Structures are given as structure tokens and as C-alpha cells.
Here is the input.
Amino acid sequence: MNSVFQLAETLKKLCPQLELRENEPLSHHTSFRIGGPVTLMALPKSKEEAALALRTAANLGIDPILLGRGSNLLVADEGIEGFALKYVSTLDSLQQEGPCELVAGAGLALAQVAVYAMEHALSGLEFAHGIPGSLGGAVFMNAGAYDGEMAQVVSEVCCLTKQGEEELLSAEQMGFSYRHSVFSDGSRLIVSVRLTLREGKREDIQAKMAELMERRRSKQPLEYPSAGSTFKRPTGYFAGTLIEQAGLKGASIGGAQVSEKHAGFVINTGSATCEDVLRLMRSVRQIVQMDTGVILEPEVQMIGCSL
Ligand SMILES: Cc1cc2nc3c(=O)[nH]c(=O)nc-3n(C[C@H](O)[C@H](O)[C@H](O)COP(=O)(O)OP(=O)(O)OC[C@H]3O[C@@H](n4cnc5c(N)ncnc54)[C@H](O)[C@@H]3O)c2cc1C
Here is the structure.
């Protein structure tokens, strides 16, 4: 019997309440609106459900793909023959502990956590309010903007290994650097995160969040599907500036286009395929390298495809 089919059957028996979807289009789970179906997707709503799904998959020799809210993902048009796990959290998982700490489920939207912090007069997450995606994805990526990054506020992470064993990692163990963390090897599922913030004034926090959101709206092509910055910031440069200087603003292949508003973003103008995005990324990279000698590295995480 096909092992993913066997996994689905076993999970249905062991945990009937676990949400499973077969042949689930991954375009429904990515902000790029791109990606073919995955054979099986589990959407665990608790640590226990997630641990069971991971353990059962490991026993069958299946390595799951971990998904957050898909805002930094490019997925192959033909989809994935395999198993994807998307951890789901509700607002009940978000609590204040002590005067300045929040503990939150990793599946929550980062924006929900930032708004909660603001409502509780806790400062430190203003930078994160406009970053799409989940709290778990933000920790994985060490997401950042406007001089802030997750490394400044994450103090502890509860995660599960791919064998379903629980681990508690302290800030020092998280190996944060630019868009990188100890989780970047994909070997652990982040299930909850402790954030250490500082006391602030609600009105000031709210005003800062509104100001940063306005800056984002005025500069970024938020009206189109994308996965944010396509390439990482090369040391000493800005990817968007290099791409603009190479005359590539507005360049397009199929439905994929280098945004006219911000050259650092590849957007989906409506019908982009993964192949369109990859071909555009390859030519952008080649032209920028020829012009400047700088090699752009993708920031977007690729699933089932590569540059
Ligand atoms: C319009 C737009 C603006 C953006 N602006 C910014 C910005 O200012 N700064 C910035 O840093 N990023 C930005 N991004 C990129 C993206 O929002 C961030 O990288 C975000 O943190 C990804 O979170 P996610 O939940 O969507 O993760 P996904 O895209 O789903 O996944 C990204 C990676 O994280 C892993 N992952 C996700 N959740 C978990 C988990 N619970 N446990 C283990 N691994 C996990 C996945 O396996 C994958 O490798 C932007 C994106 C868009 C579309």
C-alpha cells in the first residue's frame, strides 16, 4: 500500500478529530496563489495532534513538509507527492504571563499577536504587525522589518521534532541571524512561542504600527499576490535597488512580474505559474550578477522546485 495512503488511514483511526485533506491545492495556502496539490495535508489544532501526526509519519518513513501561512513559499505547479502539516492555532492559545511576557500558539497570524500586544500596552512587536504569515513562520525565518526582527523578542520556543518529541529551546539555542534560525533545517515543528516585550503606552504603540503600515502600503505591491521580498538582502546592498538599477522593474515572464512599485518583489499578476516565477528569478539573478557581480540568493522558500 502507498505509504501516504497508509498514513491517512492510520491517522483516521488513531485520531478521528484530526483534520485531514486529500489532494489539497497548495495554491490555497500560499500568498503567491501558486502551487499544485499535496497528496495529504494534516491541520493539527493541538500539540498532541501534531505529535501524533509526526510520530505516525516518522514510523512510516514519511518526512512531512511544514507549512505556516504560506507567505514566503513558492510551490511547484505539479504539487507534492507526500505529506504536509500545517499547525493551526486559535486566539485561546494567546496569553499574557507576567508583566511583559506573551505565550502564543505558532499557527496564529503574527499580526494577531502584535495587535494583542498593543492592546495590552506591550511594546516590541510594532515592526512585526505588517509582516504576513504565522508566528511560527516568523520565528523560523527570523522575520524582520524597520530595524526589528524576531530575535529581539523571542525568549523561548516549544517545538516538536519530526519524531514527535517535545523540546524547549531558549533564546541562546535559536541561532538567529539574518533570515535564519536553528529551525531553518526544517527538522522541528514550532508549536508555541514565548515573547518578552516591554511596557509601553498603548497609543504610542498603535501610532507606530499605523505609521509602519502606511510606509509598507506606499512602497509595497500589497494589491498583488506575492511572497514578499524575492531575494535576501546581499551584504552592503539592497536587492530591490540592484534589480531596479539593472532596468528590470516591470520585467515579466508569463504572469510573473518584477513589481513596478518595488523591484524587490516578484508579483503574480493573475495567472503566474511556479515556472514563470522561477524563470523570472533566474533571469533577474543572471542580469544582476552580470551587471554588478552580486549573486542574489532567494529569500522565498521553495517546495518541490529550485532555482
Ligand atoms: C506582502 C508581503 C510582505 C512581507 N514582508 C516581510 C517583511 O517585512 N519581513 C520579513 O521578514 N518577511 C516578509 N514577508 C515574508 C513572510 O511574510 C515571512 O517570511 C513570514 O514570517 C513567513 O511566515 P509564514 O507563516 O507565512 O511561513 P511559510 O511561508 O508558510 O513558511 C516559511 C518557512 O517557515 C517554515 N515554517 C512555517 N511555520 C513553521 C512552524 N510552525 N514550524 C516550523 N517551521 C515552520 C516553513 O517550513 C517554511 O520553510 C512578506 C511577505 C509578503 C507576502
